[in-house]
């Protein structure tokens, strides 16, 4: 077939009709996606497809394993930079056959993609030019969806901030607002906050939004940004929500680094709750985790959840009691005085011993001393501090006070 003019000139009632037209012109199955790889139209009555396309049509979005493979293979990075069609070789591991794709652009921003599944043929140079024309012709239709989506997102953002700041307090009212906005609810949720090294730029926000909208690892009901923070309402699906949230956080940070070369991302998440009136509480807890990570650094580097902070949850309260003179530990005072006078490390020795679950060999290795030396130091600690090393309550009290003193010094 030959076209003297643009084969896509004219009006189309819908993107589905447009997808069918592109399929008729190129003699191949066609799918049209938004910038987050959600399916918005596909050609009908195709005699041939592949597992990746079938899965996309069924779930109305490209499977995450396919997106990950296309990133690694280089197709998506190329589509985000070029206005030319990109040929994508087969990726059998994820059921992806040979394809050609082209980006749909609005000024300098990609707002969608057209994917053409090459069946038993390869698109000719002329057909590749037609595909570029198709991307231009699709722009206005996709842009209408894009604008409607943005208007809805503005209303959703306003609602989310009301929930984060406790401006809607009654559970019934919150659920009514969520239902009116067609935002799904879940049996359990937590607020997750990612904090970047500097305020987010518009480009970073696009990259983060793309990553959040394409992940299928964990349902994300709402998200917003605030300065250098990205705030999410996440809904764990299993009866091990802490494990699920930790895995999501580590995966997100790894992809930001791998795909967009963004490093130094800190993260904290609040308590996992079932009542949506506790969104504000979970948010405050997530911020508390980040504040502690900033003060304590490597000491709680691998801790993300408020529930996983252990004794650190109580440090601000304990510090206030200490400053009012209601919290003292003579044992620690004696050890600190001895260390200062004799240039020894008894406080550090006890802290390290407890950090390593009172495992003598591990502690000796970390301190780079002989186990006999460690045993001698522990005896000196017991004598100087008048501490019973067989009494767990006394040991825990001293351990907490050592950590609290470090926390106060970094305040």
TrEMBL record:
Q: Name one Pfam family in it.
A: HTH_30
Q: Please give the Gene Ontology molecular function terms for this protein.
A: DNA binding
**Keyword flag Transferase:** no
Q: Which controlled-vocabulary keywords does the entry list? A: DNA-binding
> Mind telling me which InterPro entries this protein's record contains?
CdaR-like_regulators, CdaR_GGDEF, GAF-like_dom_sf, PucR_C-HTH_dom, PucR_C-HTH_sf
Q: Where is the CdaR GGDEF-like domain?
A: 166-291
**Residues covered by the PucR C-terminal helix-turn-helix domain:** 346-403
Name the chain's protein.
Answer: DNA-binding transcriptional regulator (Contains C-terminal Fis domain)
């Amino acid at each position: 077939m030959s076209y003297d003019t643009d084969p896509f000139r004219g009006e189309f009632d819908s993107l589905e009709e447009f997808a069918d037209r592109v399929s008729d012109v190129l003699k191949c199955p066609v799918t049209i996606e938004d910038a987050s790889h959600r399916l918005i139209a596909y050609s009908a009555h195709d005699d041939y497809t592949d597992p990746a396309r079938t899965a996309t049509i069924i779930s109305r979005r490209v499977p995450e394993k396919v997106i990950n493979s296309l990133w690694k293979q280089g197709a998506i990075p190329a589509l985000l930079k070029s206005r030319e069609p990109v040929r994508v070789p087969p990726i059998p591991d994820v059921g992806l056959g040979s394809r050609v794709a082209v980006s749909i652009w609005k000024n300098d921003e990609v707002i969608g993609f057209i994917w053409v599944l090459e069946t038993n043929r390869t698109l000719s140079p002329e057909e590749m030019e037609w595909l570029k024309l198709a991307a231009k012709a699709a722009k206005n239709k996709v842009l209408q969806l894009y604008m409607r989506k943005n208007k809805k997102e503005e209303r959703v953002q306003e609602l989310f901030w009301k929930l984060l700041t406790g401006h809607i307090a009654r559970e019934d009212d919150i659920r009514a607002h969520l239902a009116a906005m067609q935002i799904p609810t879940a049996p359990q949720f937590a607020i997750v906050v990612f904090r970047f090294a500097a305020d987010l730029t518009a480009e970073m926000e696009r990259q983060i939004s793309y990553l959040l909208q394409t992940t299928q690892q964990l349902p994300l009901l709402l998200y917003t940004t605030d300065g250098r923070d990205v705030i999410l309402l996440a809904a764990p699906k299993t009866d091990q929500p802490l494990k699920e949230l930790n895995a999501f956080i580590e995966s997100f940070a790894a992809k930001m680094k791998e795909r967009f070369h963004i490093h130094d991302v800190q993260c904290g998440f609040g308590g996992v709750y079932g009542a949506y009136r506790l969104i504000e509480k979970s948010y405050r807890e997530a911020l508390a985790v980040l504040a502690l990570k900033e003060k304590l650094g490597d000491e709680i580097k691998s801790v993300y959840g408020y529930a996983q902070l252990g004794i650190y949850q109580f440090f601000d309260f304990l510090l206030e009691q200490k400053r009012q003179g209601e919290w003292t530990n003579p044992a620690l005072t004696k050890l600190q005085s001895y260390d200062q006078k004799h240039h020894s490390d008894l406080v550090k020795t006890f802290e390290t011993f407890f950090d390593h679950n009172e495992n003598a060999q591990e502690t000796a290795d970390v301190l780079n001393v002989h186990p006999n030396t460690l045993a001698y130091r522990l005896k000196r600690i017991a004598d100087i501090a008048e501490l019973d090393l067989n009494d767990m309550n006394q040991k825990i009290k001293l351990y907490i006070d050592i950590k609290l003193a470090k926390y106060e010094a970094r305040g």
